[in-house]
Amino acid sequence: MPTAAEPLLQVRDLRTWFLTDSGPVRAVDGVSFDVHAGETLGVVGESGSGKSVCAKSIMRLLDEPARIVGGSILFKGRDLAHLDDEGIREVRGREIAMVFQDPMTSLNPVLRIARQLIEAMTAHGRFTAAAARSRAIDLLRRMGVASADRTVNSFPHQFSGGMRQRVMLAMGFSNEPSLLIADEPTTALDVTIQAQILDLLRGLNRDLGTAVILISHDLGVIANICSRVLVMYAGEVVEEGAPEELLTDPRHPYTWALLHAAPRIDAQAEDRRLITIEGQPPDPRAWPSGCRFRARCPFAVEKCAEHPELLPVAAGRAARCWVTQEGGALHTPERARAAVAAPVDATPAAPILEVTGLQKHFPLPKEAFFERQRVLRAVDGVDLQVFAGETVGLVGESGCGKSTLARLVTRLHEPTDGKIVFAGTDITHASLSTIRPLRRRMQMIFQDPYASLNPRMTIGEILAGPLILHGIAGDAAAARTRVAELLDLVGLPGQSVGRYPYEFSGGQRQRISIARALAVGPDFVVADEPISALDVNIQAQIINLMVDLQERLGLTYLFIAHDLAVVRHVCDRIAVLYLGKIMEVGPAASLFARPLHPYTRTLISAAPVPDPRVERTRRHVPMKGEPPSALNPPSGCRFRTRCPIAEERCAREEPPLLEAAPGQRVACHFPGRLT
Amino acid sequence: MSDIALPAIASPRTRWLRRYGLASFGAAIILAWIFVAIFAPWLTRYDPNFVDVAARLQPPSASHWLGTDALGRDVATRVIYGARVSLTVGMVVVLVGALFGTLLGASAAYARGWAEEGLMRLTDLVFCFPPIILAMAIAAALGIGTVNTVIAMLVVWWPKFARLSRSLVISQRSMEYVEAAQSIGFGPAHILLRQIIPNAVGPLVVLVTLDLGNAILVFAGLSFLGLGTVPPTPEWGSMVGEGRELVQQWWVATFPGLAILTVVMAFNFMGDGFRDWLDPHANRR
Q: Which residues of chain B have a CB within 8 Å of the CB of A412?
């Protein structure tokens, strides 16, 4: 859509630096782009690439020591970079609105929704309080909030994350801004809610003509909505273009790497290893003098020692790369190592882990003395088998009980009811001392690399602890040798031993966490969202490491994730969890090729694909509403309240988990009806 | 890109002074008092308990820098020796109270259930009374004497540490590194003592530092009321008590009072400094 008119926003050579004691951190270092009226511009990049700082610079929401040290931000004839405080307040909220990532903290918890919306409107003097009130209700209705006239009087804590993001959008649009900046608006949300919010955003842009800058690390999200994409790396724009072209034929090696690092939900890969790029992003205190991506670039040539400019490479496209400017192509990667064909024997003997009728109910504190005890049914009757050598995936939305299930099978929690048999031993109610020997065979990898390592212990201490506890290393020297082996196994340098966790990046910490789990030599590892806190490229590195380790050590994984593409890529079998129950379980390939449960079908359809052409041809099954509370699950089939094909029978009878196709078991009265 | 002029920011030295200036001033005063307490006999030529009735109630002069009290004892000497009692009692009460309270609170928080409930109700019980009144009652029941006063103070002192350490342990025990230690097979004692408590010391150190001044103040208060030390022992609170009615001879009560003031203030400055140092959010200011 070429617009002849003046762009709405013109950012020119923007430089936002953090002036710290150890020299300026050049977070945004020479960024230029335009946003035209009514356009949706996507900004992608890994954490630290400067995309959020860029957005905050436009709104001038920078905290000390960040300063705009150069460049201009022209918006409707004003330079926002040099506007005084009074002037920028006029622009904020009224002409440019912003929606943040975390819907849990971006609303004031002590004020009612109505009051916050009304204040946002009256603050700019465009509406009277009464007019603002009726407009607030209209806006909430437009954002898809049910019975808006009643819920407008609620407090934020009464809303779920998705609902709060709708409120934030209502607030953003309340003064009819001409530009909305959405900074990772769906990152904290479940995939089904993300699809709803993205739909909403697309509709708002179409109906109201508000230009949108959408910042995201997820290429799928960007591909879904945006008409133009900027890729940022090391404080610069490295590539710009329409998503159809940029995402299918990238002209910058970094875009290429981003695209290939993420597994795709619509493709079956032969090899589980992903394409990764080496190393870390450069230090923003001292960018390298040449191309900033050169050190990690698999295509680098001699000329890359010179800093490239962002130059046009095709109609409407620009890239900051010497290789592609001279006509060089970024080939589609060959899979480095063809998977050594190791077909798993059809019938493994006995399962290493067998879970039957497992339940975990958490009693909630009573609000009144005579109240009936309320229980949260986190896991409510799960049957699952894991065989030696396979990877079983556990997927579901947040609150479906997948993390609780992980902590039950590793016996960090004690089950309320049911049975867990691990390696032939019943560990359902095993005591600390009886389970200790089994812990050598069963270990866990955690989600948050920043919380899962004790900040007061060195890496050596963290890794040697399990060795000494289980008597694996006889003396200090043996422990040191084993620690060195472990570090080598996960690809960390040997001198890491004396360092503390804060000296490592997220990906390196996750490697340490894996090394700790492997220290005792387990054969079964439970991985609870091991990659969801990491950037795409680091995710790919960790997946590759886990796949390597599985091959070398013959590990069995129970892999928990909310990202369906990752699960499809890594797992042999997948179990889909909803409100503490398994809805469907089966081989990964057949489950994705032919999902039989309507929940599986909607989950797959909600996951975005980073290719707009594919997106247009995919059939989307919209998911209604939000998951009900596990305090009071629906009668009959738990999914019926959101199911597009639910019938009266579903409310009466709970469907049992039955085999509907070879190896594929489904808990639905009408398996395969929703296609 | 050297053509960009960087706006001036305060130099690191100025910012350090702005943040830790008062705290280092406080630390210097504390160190000075500790020095005085240790080397008391070399700093004065008088005996703190030497009674010279002929020289009673003399104003500050060249021979008696801070004057003499009602029994002719040198006020300066008694203030110097008083530092020994005050600092020792303050540190003993706070450190023993902190150790005891922290261990109790931390184990209760880790154990959950009735142990936690019982302990927290016990702390509530202690908190029901104004601390100095409760300490007074206990000290009076035990009999006058430094050791008894310390015991009385310990009874009212540990609950605040129990409460703080309980809340710290509760916030730490949900961290994934604790679950990791559990899944490796470590027992509760190891997890609590070796993993959780080292991560909770920061706020405890702040409370200990801020509390040292408080403990010295309460002890001085008890002594002032005649419950602390046995009379001839030089102690700041009791010295203020002795000088209470001597309005003309202002020096008798003023100088030990100033001693209390400087020590308590110095500990507070230090505590604030520790808090800033341990608070990652304050780093940006």
A: 179, 182-183
Residues of A in contact with B189 (CB under 8 A): none
Question: Chain centroid to CA A470: how far?
Answer: 36
Return the percent helix, strand and coil in chain B, to nearest 5: 75, 0, 25
Residues of B in contact with A456 (CB under 8 A): 198-199
Fill in the amino acid letter for B21. Answer: G
> Which of B176, B184, B199 is facing A465, going by the closest CB pair?
B184
Classify B217 as helix, strand or coil.
helix
Interchain pair B180, A21: CB under 8 A: no
> CA-to-CA distance for A667 and A658, rounded, in angstroms?
6
B174: tokens are 């949900």
Nearest CB partner across the interface for B183, out of A17, A439, A447 = A439
pTM, two decimals, is 0.83
Of A15, A432, A469, the CB nearest to B4: A15
By Cβ distance, the residue of A65, A439, A466 closest to B9 is A65
Residues 6 or more apart whose Cβ sits within 8 Å of residue B82: B234, B235, B236, B239, B256, B259
| Secondary structure letter of residue B196 according to DSSP | I
Site of tokens 């001879």: B249
Question: Are the beta carbons of A640 and A627 closer than 8 angstroms?
Answer: no
Concatenating the DSSP letter of every residue in B103-116 gives HHHHHHHHH-HHHH
* Domain B14-47+70-284, CATH class in plain words: mainly alpha
How far apart CA A583 and CA A174 sit, in angstroms, is 40
Q: Is A129 or A160 the better-scoring residue by pLDDT?
A: A129
Q: Establish whether this prediction's ipTM goes over 0.90.
A: no
Q: pLDDT class for B114, splitting at 50, 70, 90?
A: confident
For residues A224 and A198, the answer to whether their CB atoms sit within 8 Å is: yes
Distance from CA of B30 to the nearest CA of A (A): 29
Q: Closest partner residue to A64 among B180, B195, B284, by Cβ?
A: B284
Burial B145-182 (b: 16+ CB within 10 A, else e): ebebbbbbbbbbbbbbbbbbbbebbbebbebbbbbbbb
- Alpha carbon distance, N-terminus to C-terminus of chain B: 28
Identify which of A287, A292, A319 has the alpha carbon closest to the alpha carbon of residue A305: A292
| CA angle A499–A501–A504, rounded 5-degree value | 90
Tokens linked to A575: 């179990």
For each of the domains in chain A, give its residue range(s) and CATH number, in order of start: 9-95+177-278 (3.40.50.300), 104-174 (no CATH), 350-441+564-638+655-675 (3.40.50.300)
Is residue A176 classed as helix, strand or coil in its secondary structure? Answer: coil
- 3-class DSSP state for residue A196? helix
Query: Is the pLDDT reported for residue A61 higher than 70?
Result: yes
Q: Do A444 and B284 touch (CB under 8 A)?
A: no
Cβ A117 vs Cβ A50: under 8 Å: no
CB < 8 Å to B9, chain A = 19, 65
What Rg value do the Cα atoms of chain A yield, rounded? 26
Beta-carbon separation of B181 and A19 below 8 A: no
* Sign of the dihedral defined by the CA atoms of residues A102, A106, A107, A108, in that order: positive
Is the CB of B184 inside 8 Å of chain A's CB atoms? yes
What pairs with residue A41 in β-bridges?
A213, A228
The alpha carbon of residue A414 and the mean position of all alpha carbons in its chain are separated, in whole angstroms, by: 29
- Tokens 């208060």 belong to which residue? B221
Residue type, A565: A
In chain B, where the domains are located: 14-47+70-284
In angstroms, the CA A619 to CA A675 distance is 9
Task: State how far residue A99 is from chain B, nearest Cα, in angstroms.
Answer: 24
| pLDDT (average), residues B124-129 | 88
Nearest to A674 by CA among A653, A645, A638: A645
What pLDDT does A391 receive?
92
Instruction: Give, rounded to a whole angstrom, the gap between the first and last alpha carbons of chain A.
Output: 35
Query: For residue A447, what is the nearest residue in chain B, using CA coordinates?
Result: B176
